[in-house]
Write a structure and sequence with these properties.
With 260 residues, this protein is α/β, with parallel strands linked by helices. The chain has eight helices and eleven strands. 37% of the residues lie in helices and 21% in strands. The strands form two sheets. Strands 1, 2, 3, 4, 5 and 11 form a six-stranded mixed sheet that branches. Strands 8-7-9-6-10 form a five-stranded mixed sheet, covered by helices on one side.
Length: 260
């Protein structure tokens, strides 16, 4: 029996076909990793140094999340929204992720979806900024509290529900602090790092202090999702493996994670 004749042309043709198949597979694999774009819903509130998506993308949160995305060849596209609309679009699955989020926030709105939360991206100090001479006066002398519109001061919840405290809301953190500086409100419920940043802008460092005798708490900001639990797992691992680098970033942004 004669062996079939294998010509050089046949070998070259098979080689070329095989080369193109492998190249196509590699390019498709690379493209799928390179082009994974995700929409991250964020608050359209200036909350620097934590985040500010109102004019430009800046703040420690974006720095951390972008560093994670780059490590995985992902692209995070940030969509600033009013707080209430942000929750609405998140639970209707119009967004891939939401930042910041917390398991205690808007539980009623989230009740029909299973929300997965990352480990804390950053811890925050939620409390009340008052004039130095008013530190330690206590709750009994406190009547008006300034808060950021859309934010719920859980540490004041009982007093607010009992109508013992009058709430003054504003979308602008700087204006709230000015109200407190002028004595128009007794205090401003503003996160410590955010308050200190705005006081530096006003050249009023130390003109307001966080009163440890008033309701306050250490809380946390998380990245949340309904549809991408696998990426939350990747982020959790990233946060653990890069803890030193992230701690350095927080120092660069003057992030305070305790009231002391």
């Amino acid at each position: 029996m004669k062996r079939p004749c294998i010509s050089a042309d046949n070998v070259n043709f098979k080689f070329i076909i095989g080369f193109f198949i492998i190249s196509f597979y590699m390019m498709a694999t690379f493209a799928s990793a390179e082009n994974r774009e995700f929409i991250v819903g964020v608050e359209n509130i200036e909350y620097y140094p934590h985040y500010d998506f109102t004019k430009e993308n800046k703040g420690v949160a974006k720095r951390i999340l972008d560093l994670f995305a780059q490590s995985k060849n992902y692209h995070f596209k940030y969509r600033p929204l009013p707080v209430k609309r942000l929750f609405s679009e998140f639970v209707s699955l119009e967004l891939d992720f939401k930042y910041p989020d917390h398991p205690l926030w808007q539980k009623e709105i989230k009740k029909n979806v299973k929300v997965i939360y990352s480990k804390p991206v950053v811890n925050i100090v939620a409390g009340t900024m008052v004039l130095p001479e008013n530190v330690g006066r206590g709750i009994d002398s406190f009547k008006t509290l300034g808060t950021v519109l859309g934010f719920t001061p859980f540490h004041w919840a009982d007093l607010i529900e009992s109508k013992k405290i009058i709430i003054h809301e504003d979308t602008d953190v700087g204006r709230l602090l000015l109200q407190a500086l002028m004595g128009r409100i007794d205090g401003a419920d503003v996160e410590l790092s955010v308050a200190n940043y705005h006081l530096r802008l006003l050249d009023k460092q130390g003109a307001l202090l966080m009163d440890p005798n008033l309701p306050h708490l250490i809380a946390s900001f998380h990245l949340s999702t309904v549809t991408h639990p696998d990426i939350i797992k990747e982020l959790n691992l990233f946060l653990m493996q890069n803890s030193s680098k992230i701690a350095k970033m927080k120092r660069q942004f003057y992030i305070r994670e305790s009231i002391d």
